């Protein structure tokens, strides 16, 4: 098998920096691709947490006197799993308190255009061979950019090749809603030729559209599920870029995300009160008792619904506060972990106050707690209005916490609805529903409670879910096949 060298460019990757699912995917891809003859090097911005992982004396493999107006160095190291890591060390851009994209108050950094255009420009130069080793440029066969923060990389490859004529490019859309649009005066500062200011270039609604630039320039576009690849061709899900997606046609591919089975495995998860597998489901009860205690829920054999999410309109969380009374009224309980919209946080806290012992709310995020919730909950509610892939439903399947999901994007691709035909065939793994309204969500919760009241049926659903294979094996091969097609 021919070995390929791929440069993965992302704004975050586990375990070094994470704000969402993008980090999980960027962190998992190198290991997923290695068995398929692909050596993936990850390029990350030099945030403080990333620099700390390199140690005190990182190896400098290149330096820029001026990268879009600021000095920068390229540092080499390895990820904790041993795969190659490159870090763009530009203190003026990345060494600051706050998050990767915004300050401590949640306000976007004013220079995000420069921070992520610089990342893209550096990536294009690295792909083109700016690193010299033993007198020879060390280029890459494929540059793989993730979301708008890395989307300028394919544009720089296209307009300023820098010796990278043989390097192909891929961009993955993790969420079309975030596009990286900036005012038109930014164009004069990102060092692209005037020809790039065009409808098929970086210009978008009179400004610089970074995601749009990447979608126009990359050799291939991927989304993180097949259904989302179809959905973004429509005005409902395309967020204004549906015309471009349709125009790119066969260049658009849907490749489902996977999960790290070493991290998300109830049989070996150290965070749990009691490890278990699909063969030892009786041990799961200890995790349910522990979850009840942790969230102050009354002890009961009735179902516990869990929610682990951002509290936003996209995730359908605006409907949940009104449904709480119905959920509790038919014998359910709820444990929620999340943060986001302040009004939604207040409404959920008020709901918990109305139902002491039946509803428990934790505002914030806690990785270990999310594992314990998947192990102790009976069902996980995911009423998203759109969901490019989703990972929490995959974790739920792995832990026998049955997903109750809106029929959209990756949720539709990964959960088999417990309808009569699927129940008769013995293949159902959860509950799907159409629409995100009070009636839709309340009906799905009712159906879930009814299924839970049938122990033999519920156990079969749990075993089906836990036997599902959503590891990275198939998805890793799909990415490797795409790279080889592009470079053939």
Automatic annotation (TrEMBL):
Keywords: Glycogen biosynthesis, Glycosyltransferase, Plasmid, Transferase
Sequence ranges assigned to domain Starch synthase catalytic in this UniProt record: 5-245
EC number: 2.4.1.21
InterPro entries listed in its UniProt record: Glyco_trans_1, GS/SS, Starch_synth_cat_dom
Binding site for ADP-alpha-D-glucose: 18
GO cellular component: cytosol
GO biological process, one term: glycogen biosynthetic process
Annotated Glycosyl transferase family domain residues: 300-452
Pathway the protein acts in: Glycan biosynthesis; glycogen biosynthesis
GO MF annotation: an example: alpha-1,4-glucan glucosyltransferase (ADP-glucose donor) activity
UniProt catalytic activity: [(1->4)-alpha-D-glucosyl](n) + ADP-alpha-D-glucose = [(1->4)-alpha-D-glucosyl](n+1) + ADP + H(+)
Alphabetized HAMAP family for the sequence: Glycogen_synth (MF_00484)
Entry's family note: Belongs to the glycosyltransferase 1 family. Bacterial/plant glycogen synthase subfamily.
Function field: Synthesizes alpha-1,4-glucan chains using ADP-glucose.
Name this polypeptide is given: Glycogen synthase
Organism: Novosphingobium resinovorum
């Amino acid at each position: 098998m021919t070995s390929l060298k791929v440069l993965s460019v992302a704004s975050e990757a586990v375990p070094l920096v994470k704000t969402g699912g993008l980090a999980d995917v960027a962190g998992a891809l190198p290991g997923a691709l290695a068995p398929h003859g692909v050596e993936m090097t990850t390029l990350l911005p030099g945030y403080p947490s990333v620099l700390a992982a390199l140690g005190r004396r990182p190896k400098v493999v290149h330096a820029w006197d001026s990268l879009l107006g600021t000095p920068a160095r390229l540092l080499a190291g390895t990820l904790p799993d041993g795969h190659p890591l490159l870090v763009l060390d530009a203190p003026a851009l990345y060494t600051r308190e706050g998050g990767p994209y915004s300050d401590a108050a949640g306000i976007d950094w004013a220079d995000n255009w420069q921070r992520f255009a610089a990342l893209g420009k550096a990536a294009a130069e690295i792909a083109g061979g700016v690193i010299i080793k033993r007198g020879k440029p060390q280029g890459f066969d494929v540059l793989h950019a993730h979301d708008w923060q890395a989307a300028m990389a394919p544009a720089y490859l296209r307009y300023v090749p820098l010796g990278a004529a043989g390097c192909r490019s891929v961009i993955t859309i993790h969420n079309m809603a975030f596009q990286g649009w900036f005012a038109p005066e930014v164009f004069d500062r990102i060092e692209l030729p005037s020809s790039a200011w065009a409808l098929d270039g970086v210009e978008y609604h009179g400004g610089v559209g970074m995601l749009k630039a990447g979608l126009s320039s990359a050799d291939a576009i991927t989304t993180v599920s097949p259904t989302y690849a179809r959905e973004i061709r429509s005005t409902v899900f395309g967020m204004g870029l549906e015309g471009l997606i349709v125009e790119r046609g066969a260049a658009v591919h849907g490749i489902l995300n996977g999960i790290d089975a070493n991290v998300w495995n109830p049989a070996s998860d150290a965070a749990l009160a009691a490890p278990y597998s699909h063969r030892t489901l009786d041990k799961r009860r200890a995790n349910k008792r522990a979850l009840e205690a942790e969230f102050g829920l009354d002890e009961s054999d009735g179902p516990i619904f869990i929610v682990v999410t951002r509290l936003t309109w996209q995730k359908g969380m605006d409907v949940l506060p009104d449904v709480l009374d119905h959920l509790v009224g038919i014998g359910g309980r709820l444990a929620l972990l999340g943060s986001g919209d302040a009004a939604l946080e207040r409404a959920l806290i008020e709901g918990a106050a109305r139902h002491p012992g039946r509803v428990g709310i934790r505002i914030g995020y806690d990785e270990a707690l999310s594992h314990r919730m998947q192990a102790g909950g009976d069902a996980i509610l995911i009423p998203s209005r759109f969901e490019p892939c989703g990972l929490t439903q995959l974790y739920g399947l792995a832990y026998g916490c049955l997903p109750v999901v809106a029929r959209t994007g990756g949720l539709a691709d990964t959960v088999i609805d417990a309808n009569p035909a699927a129940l008769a065939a013995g293949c159902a793994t959860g509950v799907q529903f159409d629409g995100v309204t009070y009636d839709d969500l309340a009906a799905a919760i009712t159906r879930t409670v009814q299924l839970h009241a049938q122990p033999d049926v519920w156990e079969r659903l749990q075993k089906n879910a836990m036997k599902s294979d959503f590891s990275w094996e198939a998805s890793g091969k799909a990415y490797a096949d795409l790279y080889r097609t592009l470079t053939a």
